[in-house]
Structures are given as C-alpha cells and as structure tokens.
Amino acid sequence: MLVVNGLKQLPVVVLTMLLLGCSGDRAVVIEDSSDRRIVRFDVASANVYVIEENGHRLMIDAGNPGDEERYEALMRGSGIDPATIDFAVLTHGHIDHAGTAAFFQERYGIQIIGGAGDKPMIEAAGDVDLCPTSITAKLLHMTLKGKQYPAFQLDRGISATSGVVDLAEFGITGKLIPHSGHTPGSMVITIGSHAFVGDLIRGGVLRPEVPTTHFFMCDLEENRRRIAEIMALEEIQYWHPGHFGPFPAAAVGVYLTQQTDE
Ligand SMILES: [Zn+2]
User: Fold this and answer.
1) pLDDT digit string (tens) for 68-77?
2) CA of 42 to the centre of ligand 1 (A)
3) CA 104 to centroid of ligand 1, rounded, Å
4) Which of 134, 112, 107 lies closest to 205 in space, CA to CA?
C-alpha cells in the first residue's frame, strides 16, 4: 500500500519540483528607459513585476505564500526598497498571485488593488475550485487543493463594469483593464508596449517564450476571446504572463490561430 501511494505521489513530486522548485530566483530588467524601469522577479516560476516611474512604484502580483522573503531579497538586490512601493495590483486572486499580499500590505503598507469579482476568492484565501486543462494540470491540482494564503482585504476593488482605469492615479502611465477571462475579477495591466496578463496565457515549462494554455481555466472560450481583445491593442508588443514568458505579441497571434484551427 505504501509503495502504491509512493508511486502515485511520484509524478506529483517530480512535477512540483519541475514547476516550482528547480528554477532559481531571478530578477530580470524588462525595460530601463528614460520613461520607466520595469523589473520581473521570478520566484518558483511565479512572476512579480515592479514598475518605477517618476519616483512612484507599482507592483503587479504577489506570488506564493511562504516566498515573501525571497521576493524581498530580489527587490533589494535590484535597488528597490519594498517600503517605497505604493500599490500592488493583483491580476487575480489565485494563491500563486495573491499569496504574499497580506505580508506586503502589513509590513510595508502597500495598498492592494484587485478585481471586485475575485472578492469571494480572496475572502476564501484562495481556496477555490480550479479547472485543470490537462493531465499535467490535474497532477498539479493535487498539490494545490485546499491550500490557502494569509488573509487580507483589498484596499480597493475594481469592478468589471467600471471600464478601463487610468494608472495615472497610481502615479504610473498605463491602463488597468478589468478582464474576466481567467477568473471573474481578473485584470490586465498595460504599460507602454507591455501587457501584464496574469494567467490569461502562460509560457511553456521547458520553452518559457512559447505561449500555451494555462493549467487552470474554467471557461476556455471566454479566455480565448479575452486574449484576442488584448491582441487587438496595437501598442502592445510584449506579453508578460504570471508564469514563464515573456513573448512577443506575434507569438500570441500564432497561438490563437492554432487554437482556432483545433
Ligand atoms: Zn490563476
């Protein structure tokens, strides 16, 4: 019995190592121009981004619970004191995007902004039904079931009906687009030629620059429609997902065509 259980767990253990454990923590500068600096912090394959503009700092997403100090260390290594970050926008309320929000809110007074549609998910601390999209995702699902993050409350909930929000009120040039493809309260952030898309799409585990369908998606068709909406924004040249990536917009176009052909 023990052996059977052990064997059953094996793919999960291997998969978890592959997805969460193997990649080293890294900070990658995405843009460093006269307009702004954007840095990606990758911990356990969960991307957190910080945008700096005119002395203002905006964080996008918050990674997995338990990884607080790893993100802190990466930020400090890139010359960013977390205490100087004003706001964090969560692309959605899943555990690997909102996991350290409570920590950054409590310790550094960072205001947490999320989609109002994800409030029930955030009140459940991320313990919600996920819809696996593949066998790999089903295995991954076994490791995530019932997991919760430290509780927090949104400082501001953006309603899906409020339309596009100008990031100027957070000191940054860009837009916040309520975008319910992946969860009811998902949001996409566009800054210059960059789109930060959360889990609308992800990069490949072995080929991070190749767009692929996310592990968990309850309404694939709606999600594809939403991807096409972002594709229609001519200024967007680069897509930055929550996991792996980034990829050029043209690669997302190829992905969408393949999906439609299937
Ligand atoms: Zn998600």
Assistant:
1) 999 999 999 9
2) 16
3) 20
4) 134
Q: What is the mean pLDDT of the chain?
A: 90
pLDDT above 90: residue 16: no
CA of 49 to the centre of ligand 1 (A): 16
pLDDT tens, 149-169? 999 999 999 998 889 999 999
Could you tell me the distance, in angstroms and rounded to a whole number, from the CA of residue 226 to the centre of ligand 1? 15
pLDDT of residue 146: 85
pTM: 0.90
Cα(199) to centroid(ligand 1), Å:
5
d(CA 154, CA 30): 28
CA of 164 to the centre of ligand 1 (A): 21
- Centroid of chain to Cα 60: 7
Rounded to the nearest angstrom, the distance between the alpha carbon of 107 and the centre of ligand 1 is 25
Label residue 83 exposed, middle or buried (CB < 10 Å: 0-12, 13-18, 19+). exposed
Token pair of 223, please? 């999600």
Ligand 1 centroid, distance to 2 Cα (angstroms): 33
Mean pLDDT to the nearest integer, 134-162:
91
Say what the pLDDT of residue 23 is. Answer: 56
Please, what are the domains in the chain? 2-261 (3.60.15.10)
Q: How far is the CA of 1 from the centre of ligand 1 (A)?
A: 34
